[in-house]
Amino acid sequence: MKVRSFLIGAGALVAMAGAANAADLTLKFGHVGKPGSLFEASVNAFASCANGKLGDAAEVQTFGSSQLGKDKELLQKLKLGQITFSLPSSVMSSVADEFGVFEMPYIIKDRDHMRRVQKELMPTFQAAVQKKGYKIIGLFENGFRHITNNVRPINKPEDLSGIKLRTPKGAWRVKMFQLYGANPTPMAFSEVFTALQTKVIDGQENPYAQIASAKFQEVQKYLSITGHVYTPAYVLVAEKHYNKLPENVRTALEECGSTTQDYVYDHAAKLEKELLDVIKAAGVEVNNADNDAFIAASKPIYDEFASSVEGGQELIDTVQRLAAGS
Question: Which one of 105, 129, 161, 315 has the lowest number of neighbouring Cβ atoms within 10 Å?
């Protein structure tokens, strides 16, 4: 962060305020990631890239751990121009229906598959958010999600019966876990640790990076490796405010939104290996779930998405076709 110190009189300060504000352009990036999370590493990498390119033209400042608000608050602050960027993930399905395709269980196979989906379908997703006043300038990730809880190991969907499971505030994740027999409880990420500790909920589902950075392993007995959903994360801006930035600033930011993706994917893959060991070391019992059983149980949610979202079946078909690389 750039720091300036002035020893001037009150009158001079007033006189110089307009000039100083005109010269300094601060761009705030708010996100919910904890220290050590993939979100924090991703946002910091983006800011480092951007600040290197921007020089004195502008400065990206980062604010993690929900300092500037939870996901929905950050979306509102984008619209109000109070922040420049946020990094929503699952919540995007509540912004535009099209993003619900990423809530379909096991639809994304790996990061190469996601790159192919991005290449073919990004215009569709960009158009969807632009209708709501936003714009995507980079695609990162939250990762493959797994289930932790304090009741029992989860091998098949029926093992979730009656378990109070925290989910993000997105309709499709709630529907999915209701289908599996759980009692899904939407809740802000910043509230989850305390809810687990006080037994308000039994468990939650997140990628290893979010589990470990939030220290859920300290208050959970079981980790079931399900990989049930892969959640992209979006470097999001409010188009109206973003378009007011100088063209050279926007160019630098979009270049960094693109190039930082490689770092994010590489770092995410590394964390998947390292943080599983961290979770195991805390004494959490780990099991590999029966993915085929979960896939078989997931057909109704695919059917509902296809029938209730305009173009939903086409989105599903396209994503599934791209899984094979075609």
Answer: 161
